[in-house]
Amino acid sequence: MKDSNFLKENNARFMWHPMTSPQDSIAHPPKIVTNADGVSITDIDGDRVVDAVGGLWNVNLGYSCQPVKDAIAAQLDTLPYYSTFRGTTNDAVIELSYELSEFFAPDGLTRAFFTSGGSDSVETSLRLARQYHKLRGEEGRTKFLSLKKGYHGTHIGGASVNGNANFRNAYEPLLPGCFHIPAPYTYRNPFNETDPEKLAQLCLQALEDEIAFQGANTIAAMIMEPILGAGGVIPPHPSFAPAVQEICNRNGILLITDEVITAYGRTGAWSGARLWGIQPDMMATAKAITNGYFPFGAVMLGEKMVQMFEDNPTARIGHGYTYSGHPVGAAAALACLAETKRLNVIENAAARGTQLFEGCKALMEKYDIIGDVRGGYGLMTAIEMVSDRGSKKPISADVATIVQETAYQNGAMVRVSGPNLILSPPLVLTEADADTILAALDAGLNAV
Q1: What's the rounded Cα separation, in Å, for the pair 182 and 180?
Q2: Does domain 31-64+344-446 have CATH number 3.90.1150.10?
Q3: 326 phi, psi to nearest 5 deg
Q4: 20 to 30 Å CA-CA from 309: which of 169, 207, 237, 362?
Q5: Distance between CA atoms of 444 and 432, rounded to whole angstroms?
Q6: What's the pLDDT tens digit per position in 17-60?
Q7: How large is the average pLDDT for residues 81-105?
């Protein structure tokens, strides 16, 4: 490994970073993380901080999960790779498919299609939704519905159903036939409604109206996050998701839950679907499935999909990835799932999530820069910062950066997305770790 001077000198010079401009990366070189253990990361200068971002929502078990590391090493010694395309498979992925069918059985999902990550899982879900309707003889069902503020990855299909213009504008025109419904976002919505239950009803009516306008027989699927994550941690009223499922079922529309973030315990439930008491037709998962230690994902499939594809001799899946069912990823996922269940991480996610949520609400009483605090379901919390509470005008990017940098100097890595400070730490966070995050946020907010 090159020395620190070499690394700093060449930081961002020979690679482009996701979700930012090359010019900004050069002007403000990113932090060089060189070590991690537990729930903390250490940068090239030796600064050690609690990782309140959890990698990127994915390091649920922290950076020292030895069973997963051991499983990866052991698999590399026996079978480092083989394809699962027609005619071949591997032992690890067979075992994983069984374990996932058991884990997601309460969600009504019993089959898996393996991918390389979250964007792949979303793309797979959209493709299979269209194929499902073609197999049923309804070839006109090609459109997709989703929520504004929703995030569904970076492939052309996922970008098309994304509900945030920041991930769309530079790449348009995108996939035709994608339409967006107002999100149940109480702080900002077109109805100026602050009551969560009333807002949920207004959004549901908008969904009904859009289906009627487009024609139910033209719509393949509705895709949504059970709790909107990258859009600013927006949990809907508990009545919302069950009503969406009822509307979809009544209109012959498949329901896809994008649980790349929410599956495997982050919400304080084993899945976002289980949190709201629904059973989607498909669920896109990734991230925590291997704790971030290996790129891997899985689309879980419900009974409608199983019957249509398994009972139809013409249902050939013309889709897949070189690394679908990668044996090393499957071994990592098996170990990760076992450790996730052994630690029963949903209990700690709920407790520490409440601690962070209540702590952030206390900070809101202290600082006028906080316009809204959202969360309350596991380790997903967001602070939305404003320059004026009355007008809800968002803060500038420079102010957000000051908060983020000061928080880092005081012991916590936090994520800024627009005006939002997003907290998504590992699910093995301790009470003391959560206190460190809150104290760092306090210092960051105080700096502005």
Answers
A1: 7
A2: yes
A3: -50, 130
A4: 207
A5: 18
A6: 999 999 999 999 999 999 999 999 999 999 999 999 999 999 99
A7: 98
